Structures are given as structure tokens and as C-alpha cells.
Amino acid sequence: MHFLIISSFITPPPPNASVLVPFNDDPFGVFAIAAADLDQEVAEDVLSEDDMSDVASVTVLRQQGAFGDVSVAWEIFSARFPEGLPAVDDLLLAGSFPDAVELRPRDRRHHSGTDARFFPGLPGAYGTVAPEDAPGPLVNFTLSARMVPEPDTDGFVMSKGTPSGEDGDGDGGTGVLYYGLKVHTNRSHVTVMLYYTAAGANRTQVARATAEKFVEDNVWLHVLVIVDDGVVESLAWVKSLEFLESSRQGPAPVFVGSDPWGGQRFTGLLQDVRVYAGAALDRGQVRELHGQPAKADLRAVSGYLRYRQDERTKSFVVEVRDDSEEEGEEVFYLQLVAARGGARLPWPRPTAVLRVMKSDNANGLFGFTGPCIPEVRGGEGGGA
Hints:
This protein is mostly beta strands. It has helices at 91-94, 283-291; strands spanning 2-7, 16-21, 30-33, 39-42, 55-63, 70-77, 89-90, 102-103, 116-119, 127-129, 141-149, 154-162, 176-185, 189-197, 204-212, 221-228, 231-234, 239-242, 254-256, 268-276, 302-307, 313-319, 330-340, 351-356. The relative contact order is 0.24.
């Protein structure tokens, strides 16, 4: 952002005028995958530990400007989704968190490289996504969150609203909850609640689904809530509930791990808290999101890259998982899916192709069923 000062030559005193020149030409950068890495072939079977043919290196470029610290998220999809899933807001990537909300890289899901954070449930121990970085108005949408809740958790995984002062419509107020995802657990059940304030109403409404689920230590749960044409569906437990009215919405921050007032806080691990703001995922997309089929063949299927000011290049590796199954060539799509810090992703989103070659004698293996050296009979060709 720049200020241009224009002064006249009339003296004294010289009048001044300030002209605000907004950011332009992507000063924080536009992400792209290096051209040399857009189509790569990797092997599953290798001849030795020193053979690196089972590893693909991917370089992500920060083009245009390089102001500020920025980040980008990547994810790998199966051959069924060459264009990936719909556009997504990654709240753990976009949010700012106090020190009390610890990063726990050792606790994240084994095949993932995105941030896992532990929310201790203490006052102030939650994250905030600024209004300009928060999801836009929601009509049909999907909320997705991976979690390891503590026993007897009763708090919001995420919420959008204003804690006090302006209520998003510019007319002031004491705050409002536009919508939020809350989870309650005990030793035998998990209850998922979607809170929302309907357009034109002042009372918060709740749609809920409960399932029997023993909450164990270090066991990840995946909560999916899909709103499609007025119906809320929690696909993890096939529960459908009416979403009676469109949610009241306006510009407001998003809170990760709490309601807007900081009172009902989530306790436990969270990873991949995401909002697909423009799409109710269909069954095929849900299977891709929930199952992440690429993890059967690749050691990591997601991650973040972080760039300091003036940094323009970051690289990471994707390693093939070796198994003993006979497999033909498999194709996966690596895509940049979300950005933070003012940097931008072009459309269509940058995507690279990874081809895993045939493995474990996929075309068959010839051999003898018995000894391959013929017997030599005595007396033939020998001296007496």
C-alpha cells in the first residue's frame, strides 16, 4: 500500500492532498508449480536404498511480488478427480493462534503434513481468522474437520460471528453468531451441532445429530456437515435434519476452537478444519475427502509450504509407498488448494500429474516350476 503526496507551489502554507494507491499486481505473490514438475513419473520398486526413483520433487514458485510472509496448502487426489475438489477455505492455515494452542506435528495423521493443533480449552486458547480471510456467504456448503476430542468435550470447532459492537450489518449490537459447528462428547456418544441464526431472526437455531462412538485416545474422528438446498446432512452417521432458513450472514471474523465470545471452547486436537463455501460435496467427493485413497500408494498426501518475505521458491518431496501388490500404472493429481497472507492461487488451480509406474511384476513373471538345470546322466559324454 502506498501514499502519494501531492503538493502545490502556492506558499505559504502549501496545501497537501493524500492519494491512496491500493495494492496491485499481486504484491504478495501468485503461486505456481514449476514447469519441469508438472508431469512426473516415479517408481514403486527400487533396486537399492540409494535408488531415488521412488521420490518426486515438487517446486512451488511464488511469482509476481514477494512482500510479507505467505503460505500455501497442497493436496494429492486420485485419478477420479483430475480437477481436485471444490474451492476450500483452510481455517487452520488462515488463522492466527496464541502460544497456548500448540502445534503438534508428531500427533497429526501419519499420511498428512498439514498442521495439527492442540486446543487446551483454556480462556483465550482459540484462533481467529480475519473477516477479509474468512469464508464468504454460505448457501450450499460443506464443513469438514478432523479431530481427537478430549473426553467430555463440549465446545465449538469453529464459528463465525461478532463478539460485540458491530453485528456485521453496520447497525451496532451486542454481537451475533452467524453459524458454528459444535461437538459434545462423552464416553459413549458424539453429538454434532450446527448453530445458525436465520435471516431476519435474532434467535440461534440448532440442527444436531448424535451417534454412538466410544471416544478413545489418539483416534481421529472425521466430522462432515453438508448443507444442500436447505437440508443438513452429517454423512459420517447418515443423519439428515432440516435447515429451515438461510443463515444470517455478514462480514465477520471466524473463530477456530471457540464460539465468538470465547466461552464454549473445544478441547483436543484439530486438523484440516475446512469450509467448502460454494459446494455441497456429493457422495463421490465425500469418499475422496474422507478416504484419501492416494494414501495407499503415497507416504504423504497433503502439506503446507511457508515463505518468508522475499522468498520465492520452496520444494518438497512425494515418496511412493512400496507394497507387494501387483499394480498397473496409477495416476495422481497434486494440487495447490489454499493460500494465506495475501498471496493468490490462479484459476484453474495449479495441478501436477504424478504417474506411479507398474510394480511387483504387474505384467507377470516367467519362471520354471522345477529345477532349471537338466540332469546329466552318467556315461554320456564321459570317458570310461
